[in-house]
Every structure is written in C-alpha cells, then in structure tokens.
Amino acid sequence: MKSAQIRFLFLSLILGLLSCDDEDNFETDIADFEDFKLTKNYYWNGSDGSGQFTYGNKVFFNTYYSDWGTYSGFAYSNIINDILYCDSAIYSSYPSGGANESKNYAVAHQFERITITFSDTIKGEEPVYVMLANTTYTALAIKYGYGYAKKFGGYSGDDPDWLKVSIYGYPTWGGVTGPVEFYLADFRSSNNSNDYIAKAWNYVNLSSLGNVKRLEFQITSSDVGTPLYFCLDNLKGRIKK
C-alpha cells in the first residue's frame, strides 16, 4: 500500500475517533413538538395563563393578552391553511404543516422579546440548527397588502422590501453571540425575478452561537405594518454530559 494511502487511512481513523469521542460527550435534544397532543386543526396560544411550555430541555416563553385575545412569544399549532387570510392563518405555517411533513410546529409572535431558555440553566445548550417558515397570515399580508401591511415590492414591484428573523445567543459565560439572520421575504434585488416570500421550511445553521443559556429572536421588516410572526420547528441542540 502506498504511503499516501496509509496516511489517508490513518487520518480518517483519527478523525473518526475524535468524532465518536465528541458525540460521547454530548446528548442531543430536539424540539419537534410531536409529543404535544392537539385536536386536529387547533393550537395552544397561552390563554390558560401558564406563561410557557417546555419541550425536552427547551423552555418556550409566552405572554397572553386577554384583553386583545393575542400573545407574544411562542404558541404551538397543527393547523393546515396556506390559502385563506383569516384568524386561523395566524397559527398556520405557509408550507402547510410542520417541517419534514410532521404535524406540529411552534408559532412566534413579537410584541415583547421572543425567548427560549433551557431547563438545565448551568450547562445551557449548544444550538445546532432550526427550521423556520412564514405563517400564512404574514405571507399573504405582504403578498397582497392586506390589513396594515404593505404589498412587498409596491405597485411597481421595485421597492426593496424585506422581512427577516435575527437570532441571538446569550452564552453561559456572558455576552452575546450572533446574530444569525434569515430572510422570510426579500425584495431587495435589482432583478425582480429574484424577489421571494419563503414558502417552504428552511434550514438555519445555529452552530456559530456556541453554548448558550438563552436564545432570543427578533423580527424586523422594511414596513412597519408587517405582521410579525414566523413558524419554528426541529430546533436541535447539544447538551454536554
């Protein structure tokens, strides 16, 4: 066997051992919400006043405003509706259903901070990735200009409108990491054929945030009338053993 082949096999063996050793030091925690029992085409939005829900190691915060019948933070849902601009569209993913054809998913709404912490506050967690999507309510609002929302692109189609989610990590040692940014809609290109409103679930890599005790999500838009919602599924993290 040639020396180059021997070196390659030796390097592969070392990398494999290091990978196994790394995985042995961590356990995986993924929030896919499939263990939640919901009536078909229904949602939970915090109207019970509990203020949060937990899935695995992750704690999703919620503030419910009874006077307005709405919430800030996270809800969860299994509603299927990618056509109608109505109350159920607030809790509907625009791709219809959860990521990877699953049933349940989380729905975030921004009045106050959108926050996730971890049950193990000492160790925290290393976020790996998350799947993000539009709600039907937001997607149709910016596609057609419903309610207070502007039609993205304007009547000419040339307005450089955008809608994005920014994700920040708060490490166990202090400070802040990120943001990791994802555009739910982007009309900034000079070529209008490149404009889009995200219709599918999208993979977002979070590994750059490092080991954190808290995640915060911020929704921003070029238009102040845009409904500030997004859907979240399959939030994967690693916990050091």
How would you sum up this structure, described in words?
The protein has 241 residues and is mainly β. The chain has one domain: Protein of unknown function DUF4465 (Jelly Rolls). It contains two helices and 14 strands, in the order αββββββββαββββββ. The longest helix has 22 residues. The protein is globular, with a radius of gyration of 20 Å.
The CATH superfamily is Protein of unknown function DUF4465
What is the β-strand count? 14
User: How many domains in all?
Assistant: 1
CATH class: Mainly Beta
| Beta content | 35-45%
Order of helices and strands: HEEEEEEEEHEEEEEE
Q: What is the helix tally?
A: 2
Spans of at least 5 consecutive residues with low confidence: 1-21
Mean pLDDT over the full residue set:
91
Helix content: 10-25%
Radius of gyration: 20 Å
Please tell me the CATH architecture by its name. Answer: Sandwich
The N- to C-terminal Cα distance equals 41 Å
Quick one: biggest sheet?
14 strands, antiparallel
Structural class: mainly beta
Shape: globular
CATH topology (level 3) name: Jelly Rolls
Helices and strands in order:
Blueprint: H1 3-24, E1 26-31, E2 43-44, E3 52-55, E4 58-65, E5 70-77, E6 105-109, E7 114-118, E8 126-133, H2 136-144, E9 162-171, E10 177-186, E11 196-197, E12 202-205, E13 212-221, E14 229-240
Antiparallel strand pairs: 1-14, 2-5, 3-4, 4-5, 4-7, 5-6, 6-14, 7-13, 8-12, 8-14, 9-10, 9-13, 10-11
What is shown here, in short?
The chain contains two helices and 14 strands; from the N terminus they run H-E-E-E-E-E-E-E-E-H-E-E-E-E-E-E.
